[in-house]
């Protein structure tokens, strides 16, 4: 089916978008939600399973206390009420990745409810109301082999790995998010980003969207501008990057508008997102009245966290990431743009740690956002995955400050650090990178450059100081980059004064 996609400007002129986001956070507990199986990512398929998470007859589940603790901390960080008493429920459905034929989840009694999170988009604050955050278990993972795109359609056969079945999840559900207008795609992205930051600050998950430890389902509907009603929504499932969240909203807005302006009706359904072109395609039809025959889980006791415990956990909450950002920006003297770039590059913590290790904030920012960001990009990894530590970056900058090396040589030190050649000092010694501080050698190189470039030298003698750059360049080349450019400049100007 060919879709009519309406240009974004026209969509927001004629319609009000309503967003709804469901985020699944995989907790980083040592063990699964209801059994003692390890909950680590990446084991050989079906090696981290037991009778309980496979749903074998007679196996009895036990709630993971650490998961409950993480759920409460997430709820508190989202300004939620914490239930005094709540239960798990069985969500009954058959699907091959769900070995028990039901998922143990929470239904009408979530552990946390009625919260909010404020997000900033281009200087405007949007309050996202949280309906609930509840505990549940993850499903197994199916892979479909033989098809062109990993989908079940066209596949020769399917495999299922139950290692993930039973890993604790927290599902965070928003209320409908209204009034975002043309900022809807950015608000959705900012919200998921804020949740991720919060989860990282709480330390309750690996928070790796690319590995599925944070997954977002993006609901979108459009209503005629100013009508105040809610339109029929689509639900784009398992969007796994911040950029994709924004693109999915943008695409769905254009698609819904195309249907509505053409006189059609939007189908309430799940959609798949396609990274390659930012489009979505139809999944399965979904009605609100889908009957999972929920009922209270009879094999588990209710969860009744004492108020004392809840208050103890409240005291463990980290500084709110948004508040922290404002504080750090003030301490570092960064402009809004510098701060936004730092956050956008995922370098906030790295810069903070580099500053804590003694580097000036601007120097820390410079290395992480230029040299190291480029290398991470080339290697296709996150900045945090580079084998260079904040302490090493601070050590390299200290050597630059001491004029042992210059910025250009520092880049070669980073090469050495990434190649595991030892400490910055060892790399400088082994690679012979220290700047030449021998004034005699520097002076001779400057004299040589002046002699070889008489026209430029004359210009500088005539007061055209800007021409000095060419001579400095010639000296630096002669010294194979191993000179202090500032000192070379002083020498050039002294000799031609
Ligand atoms: Zn198990």
UniProtKB/TrEMBL annotation:
Q: Give the family from UniProt.
A: Belongs to the GatB/GatE family. GatB subfamily.
Reply yes or no: does the keyword Nucleotide-binding apply.
yes
The record describes the protein's role as: Allows the formation of correctly charged Asn-tRNA(Asn) or Gln-tRNA(Gln) through the transamidation of misacylated Asp-tRNA(Asn) or Glu-tRNA(Gln) in organisms which lack either or both of asparaginyl-tRNA or glutaminyl-tRNA synthetases. The reaction takes place in the presence of glutamine and ATP through an activated phospho-Asp-tRNA(Asn) or phospho-Glu-tRNA(Gln).
Q: What GO annotations for molecular function exist for this entry?
A: ATP binding; glutaminyl-tRNA synthase (glutamine-hydrolyzing) activity; transferase activity
Q: How does it assemble?
A: Heterotrimer of A, B and C subunits.
> Which keywords does this chain's UniProt record carry?
ATP-binding, Ligase, Nucleotide-binding, Protein biosynthesis, Transferase
Q: What is this protein called?
A: Aspartyl/glutamyl-tRNA(Asn/Gln) amidotransferase subunit B
- The answer to whether UniProt assigns keyword rRNA-binding to this entry is no
Q: Which GO terms describe its biological process?
A: glutaminyl-tRNAGln biosynthesis via transamidation; translation
Catalytic activity from the UniProt record: L-glutamyl-tRNA(Gln) + L-glutamine + ATP + H2O = L-glutaminyl-tRNA(Gln) + L-glutamate + ADP + phosphate + H(+); L-aspartyl-tRNA(Asn) + L-glutamine + ATP + H2O = L-asparaginyl-tRNA(Asn) + L-glutamate + ADP + phosphate + 2 H(+)
What InterPro entries does UniProt report for this protein, alphabetically?
Asn/Gln-tRNA_amidoTrfase_suB/E, Asn/Gln-tRNA_Trfase_suB/E_cat, Asn/Gln_amidotransferase, Asn/Gln_tRNA_amidoTrase-B-like, GatB, GatB_Yqey_C_2, Gln-tRNA_amidoTrfase_suB_CS, Gln_synth/guanido_kin_cat_dom
Query: Matching Pfam families, A to Z?
Result: GatB_N, GatB_Yqey
Q: EC number(s)? A: 6.3.5.-
What domain of life does the native source organism fall in? Bacteria
Lineage of origin = Bacteria, Bacillati, Actinomycetota, Actinomycetes, Propionibacteriales
